[in-house]
Amino acid sequence: MDGATAVFAALVFPGLLFTFLMGLFFEYVERKLVARVQRRIGPLYAGPGGVLQPLYDFVKLLVKEELPPEGVDRLYYWLAPLLAAAAPAYGMAFIPVSSFRLSIDTPYDYVFTLFLFSFAVFATAAAGYAVYSPYTAMGVGRLVVQYSVYEAIFASTLALASLQTGATSFRGLIEYQALHGPLALYQPLGLAAAVVALLAKLEKTPFDLPHAKQEIVAGWMTEYSGRGLAFLHIAKDMSAVWGSALIVAVYLGGPLGPLYGALGGLVDAAWFVAKMVAVYAAVAFISSLAGRVRVRGLAEKIWGALLPLVFVQFLVVVALRWLV
Amino acid sequence: MGAGKIERIEAEPRELPAALSRLRGEGYSHLITITGLDEGDSIGLIYHLARPGGGVAHLHASVAKGGEAPSAIGVFRGAYIYEMEVHDMFGLRFSGNPHMGRRLLLPDCYPEDEPPLLKDTDPGRVREKLFAPGTVCLQGPPVSGLSRYSPESIAVPFGPYHPAFKEPEHFTLIVEGERILDAIPRIGFVHRGVEKAAEQRSYLRDIFLLERICGICSMHHGLTFTLAVEKLLGLEAPERAEYIRTLVAELERIHSHTLWLGLVGYWMGFETMFMWVLTVRETIMDLIELVSGNRVHKSIVTIGGVRRDVEGEKLRRVGEKIRGFEKEFSRLIGDILSLDEFIERTSGIGSYTAEDARALSTVGPVRRAVGDPYDIRKVEPYCAYGDLDFKVVTGDRGDVYSLVQVRAGEVLESIHMVEQIVDHMPPGNPVPKRPFMGVVKPGEAYARTEAPRGELFHYVRSAGKHSPDRVKVRTPTLANIMLAAHALRGQTVSDVPLVITMIDPCFSCMDRVLVADAGSGRRRILTEADFHRMRRRW
Is B344 on the interface with A (CB under 8 A)? Predict the structure, then answer.
């Protein structure tokens, strides 16, 4: 892989541009789906079936007036939204979306993903702490609590995947799944735990505590407006893409599927996107049918319910290694 | 009856606490409100007391202007909020009430020497003082001396404009992490001077004015006022009119309770539930429009009857649609109440005891949720409630879950009442020949009804003119708001929206009496020409 390909991977496919467009599409899918669950119609007028509505909203926010409050830490206030959007775009560049290897391919990219995850949370925490107001302070406090709770689950499920396949890179994971079938067959409990952790990571109900509007207005992003807010919103959408892509690559065989490798990799890219949309639709559906958990019950809920799952999965994985 | 002429029990000001505790000993354990009156040289105070089983007593005392009256908080804990109201409106001080220093309803910058409800207070003069250069009218949170809380605590402003509130209201929450140490309410952001304005309009126009106190229970305000005026006139509405009034009142209760039930979902972050409940509620809104012609301000009540008849065909459709609604509503509520998640978020949240509820003079579902069957429709039946078969829904413990159960139960009861009304509508003409435009002979009367949020009280005094001499409104939310603040202590921030709103607050209802809009801090008076100019620019 040469430098030019790496730059292309980071900026166009499957990095920035692809993630951005997918993020807008994901938002559309979510809004439409939630609307249907709630007996509404959802976006309808912008573009065919309203598909361009997220783009319109993004552009509209970009051109709106910005009102940074007094006493704001200017560096973080401007930098944090950019970092928040950059983390998922960069993270996507490592994901093997298609069989023609455009993504950045390193022996340890899978492990590196964990680091990027923490980095993304750091960016949002910085966004909150750039302004010190009661709402942002409480929002960041909740964000950090929530992060420390779900990250343990997410990291251990990812580690279990590594344990079974012996791979530290996405290439290794995909090769293992090409031989033995999708990992979801062996690790259904791990998949379930990872999806719940993903809900928490994406701050979707029931885990939308850090920006619970009925309680703390908009939490850590209360003081953002205009461009900054637009970037924070798109960062959320891109994180959704990234998170779903991770689940697809790790558990659902990534781009593998019938006609794998046909049409110069376009078919596998289509497979990958279809799986991603399915994963995210499931996430949005669960989210639409849930109420928010209370801060006090958060750790109990996530750890109490998911750690046993992860532990059982761990035993299964160890047994599989020993048997196979 | 839920209305009657007032027979005063006279007392000397200094004997007030003794007289109140004597009446309390006689069973009058519920302080409805304190009405202030401008009697020329003195200020009259009427303490309206009710027996839980029915019967109202009115204790009157006259205090010289600029004098002091003894506070009743020793007898009724919840009296302090009514004393603050009288203090704001009439400038009368109550010795022994620790809250006399601050405002309840008026903005902090309101001139001390112009109590708005005195007859000689001139709105023009008040406006001049309010808008004089140097007057700053920003209403800050009434927080002082934070040091008495722990050093880790911070004050989190909750409102006046907050996504959880549909109306402006301010709570200062003193929190330590997620735990709330104290909650300090500040009301009065939407004063419109309704009580003062009512003194300047004819009785007929007052109905429309008073309906605009609240957008949700608007019909009950018009109804209660009308009942009081009819008592003064010695007039009785035709039976069919009473049935139509009851019909609209119960439809209003259904729509108000379902709105609240939906909002419970919103407040706990379960927005899908909000959407579902509001979809179901739409049927009721259609029925209200069908019956009264309006969706929000029903404007169906008039003195001596109702403003339009509901013919047979319409009644038939009401009966049909309400049965469909019952099916959908029971299914939806059954589903929601059995959700583990829902029970966990509401059960045991914002809990309060029956003693709290009684001592703070709470009313309505808030009171019934702790097992106290205090319902004006049963205690003192008005309109057609005497003929209808219904039961008072009560709960067994005070918390959000029990309130949801009580309100859901009341919706079902109301549906049955609507069905009975449709089946047994008496014949006759309910519409008076012409609207009442006359003079009311001197006297005073009260009326109380069971509005969706609880007991609603109106006091009307006539001096023999075309317009009332004094109208006093005590809305249920004012009686309940102190309980919300009380229940907030010790809760977590996650539960704040649910706890504050468990009383189904209607903040605009509480805030009625103000001469000028000063809450915005705007000093320039906008003339009509200004508005035209601004409109053209946009």
Answer: yes
Which residue carries 């979707």 as its tokens?
A: A204
Q: Which CATH number fits domain B194-509: 3.40.50.300, 1.10.645.10, 3.40.50.2300, 3.10.580.10?
A: 1.10.645.10
Window 259-298 of B, Cβ < 8 Å to A: 265-273, 275-276, 279
Tell me which of B221-225, B302-306, B533-537 is least confident.
B533-537
Nearest to B270 among A134, A209, A291 (CB): A291
Question: Which sequence spans correspond to the domains of chain B?
Answer: 3-106, 194-509
User: Can you read off the two tokens belonging to residue A13?
Assistant: 């496919």
Show the domain range for A30: 3-64+84-106+142-214+227-323
Q: Is the distance from CB of B398 to CB of B465 less than 8 angstroms? A: no
Calculate the alpha carbon distances from A256 to A10, A26, A260, B89 in Å: 22, 21, 6, 76
Query: Does any domain span residue A157?
Result: yes
pLDDT for B272-311, tens place per residue? 888 989 989 999 999 999 998 888 888 899 998 898 888 8
Q: Report the alpha-carbon distance of residue A42 to residue B515 in Å, rounded.
A: 44
The CATH number of the structural domain formed by B3-106 is 3.30.460.80
Chain A residues inside the 8 Å CB shell of B164? 213-215
Residue-wise pLDDT tens digits, A286-323 = 888 887 887 777 888 788 888 888 889 888 888 888 87
Q: How many domains does chain A have?
A: 1
Residue B138 has pLDDT above 60, yes or no: no
Say if A210 is an interface residue toward chain B (CB within 8 Å). Answer: no
The residues with which B183 forms a beta bridge, in sequence order, are: B173
A284 domain residue, yes or no: yes
A133 occurs within a structural domain: no
A114: Cβ contacts below 8 Å, ≥ 6 apart: A155, A158
Tell me how far apart the alpha carbons of residues B58 and A263 are, in angstroms, rounded to a whole number. Answer: 90
Question: Which position has the token pair 């029971």?
Answer: B330
Cα B19 to the center of its chain, rounded Å: 27
